[in-house]
Amino acid sequence: MEAHGRTPNRRTLLRSGALIATASLGAAVTTAGAHAADATSTGTRGRRAAADYPPTHWIPASSSNYRVSDRPTSYPIELVVIHVTQETFQDAMKIFQDPAKQVSAHYMVASADGYIGQFVREKDVAWHAGNTDYNNRSIGIEHEGWVDQPEWFTDALYESSAALTAAVCDRFAIPKDRAHIIAHSEVPGSDHTDPGPLWDWDRYIDLVNGV
Ligand SMILES: [Zn+2]
């Protein structure tokens, strides 16, 4: 079980109040394992292909909450859009799995330990930016937390997310700069403020670049 790998983080999770999310994620990952076994060459307990770094876990969003596509053939993938959930990981996961919600992101990073769930495949168009053109051309990454509560922006969250963004940029030849790694609040027409002024962009971009 993936839960075994998370045991060392139990104290951290307790401190952040995220233990409930862990319990639910354990169940989700168990289910996800069956999907991953079909979709990857490794099929190891929900973990995706060994080539992926950082490791992510497949927790599919409702098929009503994204659009199947064939990127980068259908659209170039040129941007990474950074979000903050304004929800716990668990609650955001439920939203992605609720067909009535009509929202999703490709990835979500947990605050306490940097756990990464993948909800939509990169080839498909997740509905996260509130702008069809930007959705078509981007990968959306959610971060567990609230824009006005900096304690959610942990070292683990920054480091895990930056490794993910670096891998996405490498896959699609996206420059690792602020012109291509953008805030949800910078998407034209967006009325969202995330990830907000407390998000440390200088630190994040440095981490993405391995500085
Ligand atoms: Zn957002």
TrEMBL record:
Please give the catalytic activity noted in the UniProt record.
Answer: Hydrolyzes the link between N-acetylmuramoyl residues and L-amino acid residues in certain cell-wall glycopeptides
Q: Where is region (Disordered) located?
A: 34-54
SUPFAM superfamilies for this protein: N-acetylmuramoyl-L-alanine amidase-like
What is the enzyme's class at the highest EC level?
A: hydrolase
Instruction: Please list the residue ranges that the record marks as compositionally biased, kind Low complexity.
Output: 34-44
What are the residue boundaries of the N-acetylmuramoyl-L-alanine amidase domain, all occurrences included?
66-196
Source organism superkingdom? Bacteria
- The signal peptide stretch is 1-36
Alphabetized UniProt keyword annotations:
Cell wall biogenesis/degradation, Hydrolase, Signal
Q: Where are the transmembrane segments?
A: none
Q: What is this protein called?
A: N-acetylmuramoyl-L-alanine amidase
Organism lineage string: Bacteria, Bacillati, Actinomycetota, Actinomycetes, Kitasatosporales
